[in-house]
Amino acid sequence: MTELYLSYVQKKAEADRLAAEAEKLLSQIINSISDSDLLTASETARRLKVSVSTISRMMDDGQLEYTRVRTRRMVLKSSLPTKMSKI
Predict the structure, then answer these.
(1) Is 86 helix (H, G, I), strand (E, B) or coil?
(2) Residues 43 and 54 in one domain
(3) pLDDT tens-digit series, residues 1-43
(4) 53 and 67 co-located in one domain
(5) Strand partners, 68
(6) For the purposes of burial, counting CB atoms within 10 Å of the CB of 4, is it exposed (0-12), middle (13-18) or buried (19 or more)?
(7) Are 53 and 71 contained in the same domain?
(8) Are residues 41 and 75 in the same domain?
(9) Which ranges of the chain does DSSP label H, i.e. alpha helix?
(10) Packing angle between helix 52-61 and helix 41-48, nearest 10 degrees?
């Protein structure tokens, strides 16, 4: 029983270490992207002159590239279409 508990503690410590490392890397990636390079769905909708639901649908359908920042979907300005075609 003691060996089993020790194995669990070691694996838990390793998992915690890996999770902390992943969190640090994610933070570095997010910080490397300037806030001015990202747009919310609302900002994107205003720029493209469409509704927010259209933007959400475009994201869901893969027509618009986005990245997740915590729980929000953010659009890179560089991925915006220059013109909106009929959807």
Answers:
(1) coil
(2) yes
(3) 688 888 899 999 999 999 999 999 988 877 776 667 889 999 9
(4) yes
(5) 73
(6) exposed
(7) yes
(8) yes
(9) 2-32, 41-48, 52-61
(10) 100
Which tokens in the block code for residue 21? 């490392």
Q: Does one domain contain both 6 and 23?
A: yes
Which residues lie closer than 8 Å to 87 by C-beta, 6 or more apart?
Answer: 54, 57, 58, 63
Cβ atoms of 74 and 66 within 8 Å: the answer is yes
pTM of the shown model: 0.55
**Which domain range does residue 76 map to?**
34-81
Report the amino acid identity of residue 26. Answer: L
Instruction: Indicate whether 3 and 14 sit together in one domain.
Output: yes
The number of domains in the chain is: 2
User: Same domain for 74 and 45?
Assistant: yes
At 4, list the tokens: 């089993």
Considering Cα of 75, then 27, then 29, then 10, what sign does the dihedral take? negative
